[in-house]
Target: Threonylcarbamoyl-AMP synthase
Amino acid sequence: METKVYQTDQLQEAAQKLKEGELIAFPTETVYGLGANALLPEAVKQVFAVKGRPSDNPLIVTVANFEMVKDYVDNFHPLTEKIVETYWPGPLTLIFTIKKASLPPVVTGGLSTAAFRMPANKKTRDLIALAKVPLVGPSANTSGKPSPTTSEHVYHDLKGKIAGIVDDGAAQIGLESTVLDLSDATKDPVILRPGAITQEELSKTLGIPVLLDKHLVSESEAPKAPGMKYKHYAPDTKVLLVKDGDWQKAKEWVKDNHLRAGVLAGPKVSEEMRYDTACVFMYSKDTATAAAKGLFAGLRALDDAALDLDVILAEVYPENGIGAAYMNRLKKSANQQYFTAED
Model:
């Protein structure tokens, strides 16, 4: 199959492909998504097949406007209107209990709930409006691997497997959306996956403490939202998290064991490690925001087979604000493993 790259003036053609059941990757402000007509079960099944994604992992339904959500949900949480007015379009996914049989079970993972998102990227909202159907929109990559933040990443993973990619440059945020559970109208919202819209920001906006569910789903459990498994976003190369005070020890460990190590860090650590390791992927600044934007691109770059690395050493950041989202993804990419002096 030829995978075509669509530009702005070709959205109608891409929308027609979606209506016909083909798969089209699309840009968002977070990462690139893999689009299929959410109302065509056979098209959705192709998403699972192409990604190699477990069938119990529910898919996010991507919409052009809030009116589309009303076709599938009629019992909204009391805070829905305030949340939607404040954050949509944007990097926030909302989970609702849906009308019975309103969406195919392959979309919901057999659950009575579904996740909905309206991305800030206008090109993708226009694409959905032209297709006149909601789209499933998981990350457009091989399941379990680092998510794609450019159309080139998508092409690398899915070339020849999907009909096309709508190109809109690099994603501005670089990590998947915050997922907020609003499925029980009698309970306060809970964050199931942290993202750029932070726990602190949501709590301030809503005037209530918004909790973050840190429960990690085992392989035998069905997740309520994407990205809740223990290991996810992982390159083939082993990743170890390195705490602030452990970089000198890590440098000595690399040297003593004759390892080819890559470093994924901000400018300060990168400069410190660059002469003692095989290669460095440096974030643009020593901030959690810059780390979040560069994480997936960095993991992909350092996992290049041509580098033949034994290990990737990654910098940790405080788990507050967007740092919580960064560490959520990084810990899963490393399967929760930190560097220790005993390594």
